[in-house]
Amino acid sequence: MASIKVAEEATHGVIESPKEQTFIYSKILNGNSNDLWEVSKHVVALFPDLAPHYCAKAKFVCGQGDPGSIIIFHFGPGISRGGSVKHEIGKVDNKTQTSEYTIFSFSEGDVVNPSFFEAKMKFIPEKNEQTCAIWTLKYKHNEDEVGLLENVKKMAIIMVKTIERAVIEKRIVRHTMVLKAPVDTLWDVLMHEHEVLPKAIPHIIASYNYIEGWGQCGSIRLLRLGHAIPGGNRILERIDINDCVNKKWAYTVLQGDPKYKYLSAVMDFLPGPKEGTTTATWMGVYVPQNNTVPPPDLALHVWKVFESVAKDFPVYCV
Predict the structure, then answer these.
(1) What pLDDT digit, counting tens, does each position of 165-221 carry?
(2) What gap in Å lies between CA 242 and CA 249, rounded to an integer?
(3) Which of 208, 221, 238, 244 is the least buried, fewest Cβ under 10 Å from its Cβ?
């Protein structure tokens, strides 16, 4: 059951200054906190897809979700008076599953309104695969901005419900596989996948080339699909994480995927249950092109290629 609380705090200084108030919305969601937390990082893609009546479109205008990133959400017809809001991310804490951001209103020409909105989203694990989501808003506003304030509150409540829906509808998927090869060897194969995959599975991946960078964060690579992928052509991907110390790799599909409007994934290689083995995990959040498209599973096929290459072609392991 959801609960809402509003509190007022006296503001020091000029008497005419509006009071600082706190609005709290909490709800028990179906889904474990890890999945809900990960999904919350991808609301720019999921919100317009799952709740277009309230969010017509959203996009990053700065950054990609790290502190300092800026998102613009355009209201859909379900939000009175229409308009847009801008979010600036201030904090992302994976350990406590908490994010903080500032909300600004703006009009045509991107003129920032002097309203003050600071929001925090937190996920707390509960029993039986449930999670308590708490959204807190601290704000100061003028009386003529009541409509804007109500829109901000409404959007936040709908966003929390949309995050839950994304988990229920399995827009987040996880794959785990134990591979018969050491972690360092598989990581080296991954670093050469632009050479490995076109040779091993040309019917799926014809070529893989970097067009910006060489694999570091922010690099862009062009993937040409093989004849086995109906409707496939060219896919652009951005490298989001390349952590050789912790063996973590992440990427986001920017355009061209015939199956998914949006796909962002993180892959980890950890020591496996036996010496010389690796536990590979892949976690992705996605938006399908249509409701008949199954969750992504290409990682499972790619891992088997990596395992084979690590065994038979150690020349790639440098």
Answers:
(1) 999 999 999 999 999 999 999 999 999 998 899 999 999 899 999 999 999 999 999
(2) 5
(3) 244
